[in-house]
Every structure is written in structure tokens, then in C-alpha cells.
Amino acid sequence: MGSPGREACSRQDLPQQLATFTECDEDQVTETSSTSAMSKPDRGRGGDRRPERRRSPLGRMSLFYRQVIAELRKVVWPTRNELVTYTTVVIVFVAIMVGIVATLDYGFSKLVMWAFG
Fold first, then answer.
1. What SS3 state is found at 9?
2. Do the beta carbons of residue 56 and residue 37 sit within 8 Å?
3. Number of helical (H) and strand (E) elements in the chain, helices listed first
4. Cβ atoms < 10 Å from Cβ of 9
5. 117 falls in which pLDDT band (50, 70, 90)?
6. d(C-alpha 13, C-alpha 1), whole Å
């Protein structure tokens, strides 16, 4: 248990306990209804849902494409100016990296040719 003379803390008291730098031992913490409900993971067993019937392959493809289109509608697409900016940054970065790798490759090839003739 905890230290004698100290009362049990609830999880709701923890932020206050932390703010005042008072100790609250883990074994003193009592579960509240909100924390016990949050601590149990949902296993996806929707008791109130009807069991779904098995769809045909064509029906599953149709559902997949409808879901893809629904998700694409949620996407925040870049403006033309942002697209040009991002593309320029990527091309410049790749060009710099190609230069670095080419320089290292050339240097190592000269070093190997010098060392092994």
C-alpha cells in the first residue's frame, strides 16, 4: 500500500498532484468510472451491428473504389504555387545529392586506381 497517513488518490487528482509536486503512489490510485472505461480497448465486436453478408468480388471492388473516392475527397490538395515550390525544392535537392555522390565516386575511383594501378 502507500505511506501511512496518506489517503488514496484518484486518477483525476493526478494533474493536481503533479502540479503541486505532491507524491501520489501508483498503488494509491483508485480507478474511476471514466478511466476504467478508457482503459479497456474496444475489440471491434459491435454487439448492436448486424452481421455483414459476404460480398461478391465485384461488390468488394466496387466498395473499395467508392471508399477510395471518398478518401480522395477529404485530401487537401496543394495549390499550383505550392506544387511548383515543392517540385523545385525536390529537384534542387536531388541535383545536389547527385553532385555529392558523383564527386565521391570520382574521388574513390581515382584513389583505387592510384592504390592498385
1. strand
2. no
3. 4, 2
4. 19
5. confident
6. 18
Identify the residue with better confidence: 38 or 87: 87
Contact 10, 32 (CB under 8 A): yes
**Domain boundaries, given as residue ranges, for the chain:** 8-39, 78-117
Cβ neighbours of residue 28 under 8 Å, at least 6 residues apart?
1, 2, 6, 7, 8, 9
pLDDT band, residue 90 (cuts 50/70/90): very high
φ, ψ dihedrals at 10, nearest 5°? -105, 165
| pLDDT for 55 | 84
Q: Among 20, 19, 24, which Cα is nearest to 7's?
A: 24
- Give, in order, the Cα–Cα distances in Å from 81 to each of 35, 74, 77, 85, 94: 47, 20, 12, 6, 20
Q: What is the mean pLDDT of residues 14-20?
A: 51
Q: Examine the pLDDT at 69 and tell me if it is beyond 60.
A: yes
